[in-house]
Protein 1
Amino acid sequence: MLMRLALVLAALPVALVLDAEADSIVPLVVVAGLTALSVFLPASAGPALLIGYAAVTMAFGDGHPLRLGVLVMIPLLHLVHVTSALAAVVPVKTNVEPAALKAPARRFAIVQTITFVVAAFTAFIPSGTRTGLVELLGLGSLTVLIGVVALRI
C-alpha cells in the first residue's frame, strides 16, 4: 500500500504542473483518471499513458522548450515511472524497508543528473529554423553515450 500511496504522491505534482500550464480542467481530469488506473493496476499501461500524456501535453504547450514547467516535469515523470514500477512488483500489504529503496533512489539521482546535464547542453544549441545538423547529431551522440553509461550502473 505504501508504494501505491507513493505513486499518488508522485502523480499529484504532475497534475498541478499540467493544471498550471493549461487553460482548462481537462489535463487535471485526465491525470486523475490515469493515476487511478495506475494505482489500481500499476503493471498496466496506465503509468505509461500518464507519463506519455503529460510529456506530450508539455511538449505541445506554449512557451520555451526548457521552461520551468518542463524542467520540473522531468523528475516528476521519472518518479511516477519508478514508483509505478516498484508498486507493480511489491505486494500491496508488504512493508518496505528504507534500505530496499536505496538502489532505486541512487539510480534515480544518477539518471536525473544525466538528464539535467543533457538539458543544460541543449540550452546552448542554437534554436530557430536553421538549427545545424552537426549540433543535433552531437546531442544525439551525447544522449546515446550517456544511456550506455547509465545502463552500466
Note: The longest helix spans residues 68-89.
Protein 2
Amino acid sequence: MVPDVWRRGVVVADRSWASAQLIEAAQAGDRESITAVIHGAHPHVRRFASHLCASPQDAEDAAQEALIILYRKIGSLRATGALASWMFRIVRNECLRRARLLSRHDEGEAGLMSSAEDEAIGRLEAEFVAQAIRELPDVQRRVLIMRDVLGHPGRSVAETLGLSNAAMKSHLHRARSAVRLSLGGGPGTPST
C-alpha cells in the first residue's frame, strides 16, 4: 500500500511512486524502481478500473492487465509526466475491450447480427453514439457510462462520483439529452 504522510494536519497519499527520478530509473530497467512504480500505481489503477468496468472481477483483471503492460513497456514511455494518463488510458481501453467482448458474446447468442451489412450499420451507429458520448463534459460522460452503459445503480453512481442523488440524476438527464440531440433526435424524442 502507498504510505501516507501528514501535511498540515491532513493525511495525504505519498506520490513519490510517480516521481520523475523513480520513473526514469524504472525506464532504464532498474528492477527496484519498476517494483516501486507498479506497487505505487496499483491502488490508483484499481480504483479507476472499478469506476469503469462492468464488474469487480473485470475491474481487477483490467487493473492487472494494465500493471503487466506497465511492467513490460515502461521503457517505451516517452515522458515521465505522462505515466498516470498512460496507465488510465490502458485501463480504460481494457475495460472497453472487456465490455465489447461481453457485448459480442451476447449478440452472438441472440443472433442479432444477421449479415455483414447489418454488422457494418451496427458499427457505424455505435461509432456515432461513442462520438456523442466523448463530446460530453467529463462528469456527464462518467455518469452516463456508469449508469446506462455499465448498468450501475443510480445511488452507486452518485456515491462513486461523490455526487448527491439529485445531482447525479441531473447530470444523467443532461447527458442523455445531449446525446439524443447529437444523434439527430429532438429534445422530446424518447430515448430507447
Note: The chain has eight helices and two strands.
Protein 3
Amino acid sequence: MSNDETFAAAYREHYWAVSRYVARRLDGRPDEVEEVVADVFTVAWRRRGDLPAAPLPWLYGVARNCLANTVRGHGRRRRLLHRLGNDETAHGRQVVDGPGADTPGAWVHEALARLSAADQEVLRLTAWEELAVDEVAVALGCGTRAAAMRLHRARHRLRAELDQLGPTTTPARTGAGARLPAPARPVGATTPSKDHGHG
C-alpha cells in the first residue's frame, strides 16, 4: 500500500475518533474542533510516510500538539483583550451557573481539574479514548514504562483529590478501577466507542 493509500485509509477509519478526541478537549467550541481536526490531518498528510500500522494513537499525539497550539493562541488573545480592557463580562458573555448546575459526577471533574495538564491527559487517554498503556505511550511520545508510571502517578493523585472532594451522600470510587465520567457527546455524534479500526 502506498503512503497516499495509507493516509486515505487512516483518514476514513479514524476521522471521527480524532474528532471526538478534540471535541472532548474543546468543550462547546465546535468551530474550533473542525479547525483543529483539519490541522491534525494536514500534519498527517505531510507526514504520511511516518504513519504506523495502527495510526490512531499516533494521530492522538498529533492532535495533542495541535490542541497545544490552539491553547497558546487563546492565551495570546486573552492577554490582548485584557490589555484592551475588552474582557468577556464587558460583552455580557459571563456564564452563570443555574440551579441545576451541580450535575452528578461534577465533583469528579473538579478533582480532575485540580491535576496538572499532563496528569489530566494520561487519564483521559485511558478513560475516554480507552487506550492501552502501549498506545498511551505512542500518543504521548514516550516509552511504555514511562507511560505506565505517568498513569500510575496520575491515578494516585486523582484518588487523593477524590478523597478530599467526594460527595457526602455517595462514597467516592477511589479503588484501582476508578474511572472518569464520560464527557458530553458533541451534537450529532454517535455514542463514542473504542475505535481502533472503525471510523
Note: Helices lie at 3-25, 30-46, 56-84, 106-113, 117-127, 133-140, 144-165.
Protein 4
Amino acid sequence: MMRLVGVVAASCAVVALAGCSQQVEGQPEASGAPLTKEQLFDPCSVPDDVLLATGLDLTWKDDNPFSVPRAEWKGCGYKGDGHFITFKSTLYTLDEIRANDYFHSFKDITVGDRPAIQYTPGNRQPPNQCEIAIDTSNQGRVMLTATKFVDNKSSTDPCAIADAAAPHFFETVPQ
C-alpha cells in the first residue's frame, strides 16, 4: 500500500503536466524538429553505481511510474530511505514546463556543467516534492523528481534530496 501511495504521489506532477492542469498547445519539439517517444532518453538505463551513490535500493525499480502509458513520457521510479526518485524524459519543452501553472517557485540552477530549472509541483505546504529539469540536444527534456513518502515526517526539504541526486543521475544523460 505504501508503495502505491508513494508512486501515486510521484506521478501527480507528471499527470498535471500531461494534461490535468494547463493545456499546452502545439507539437512538442526540440531543436526545431519534432521528437517521438522512441527518441527520448531512457530513464530506466541508470547504472547501479548511480543508484548506490544516491542511496537508492537496487532491488526496487518501477518502470511504469505513471500507472498508465503516456505518449509523451518515459520514466522509472526508484526508492530511497523515506523518499522516491522518479527519473523521466518528456517531449515537452522547458518553456512549456515553466508555463504550466501546476509548477511553482522556479529557480535557474546549474547541475554539473548543465543549466537546469528547479521547481515545486503542486500546492502542498510544506512541499513533499521537488523537480529538476534539464534539456538535451536530441533526446527531449529529462527530469528528476524527489518525493518524500507520505508518512515521512522529516523536515528535510525535498529539494535537498533532488539536489543531491541530480548530479549523479544527470551525468548519465547525453548532452
Note: The two ends are 38 Å apart (CA to CA).
